[in-house]
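As noted in the main text, all predictions were made from sequence alone. Below is one such record, for Response regulator transcription factor.
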Amino acid sequence: MKVLIVDDHFMIRNSMKFMLQDLYSEIEFIEEDNYYNAERHFSNPDIALIILDIDIPGGTGTNMVKQIRAARNDVRILICSASDEEQMAIHYIVAGADGYLEKSVDPQEAARAVATVLNGKRYVSADVQRQLLEVFSGRHGATNPLASVRLSVREKQVMHLLLEGKWVKEIAAMLNVQANTISTFKSRIFSKFGASSLFDLEKKAKEKGLYHK
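Prediction:
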């Protein structure tokens, strides 16, 4: 079995590998630390599982899952995130991911997530599962988490600067933070809106009253 691990943190990739090697005797790994390089593997028919960090450099939010599904509809996708926001998880599951795992969980829970996904089932927290049932049954109505977007003050700030045409490095300099920090904010913003491009982000932000030009 081949597993593609897409994460820019070496320690995270290593811990995933050690955990999977304990579970499966015959396993091979492909590792990438950015989304651009990972794309070339999506159509590989030998890959059974893709473990994807949502904050990966070059990532475009939920559009990453859609791109993987376009290349391989049968591959299993487990999203890993440092964020425990239920809204993020719901967007990724609806986009086509098979599981959403918080990086803060213990190794036993991570192993359970992988086994669940590889067995053809969906892995999410109990709260996310409940909300997904409500979304698909139409019971959420006006409170549907897919219909609303909650942004932090910093996320709003970064979004406005992106939509004003600023580059990631420019925004980092303006806010006195690292460029990869801004890339992380960008990825989360795209995920929350389900946007695939800046044009799409602007359109959706305007529709939700979060951006006015």
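The chain is about 50% helix and 15% strand. The longest helix spans residues 179-193. These features were considered when defining construct boundaries for the mutagenesis experiments described in Section 2.9.
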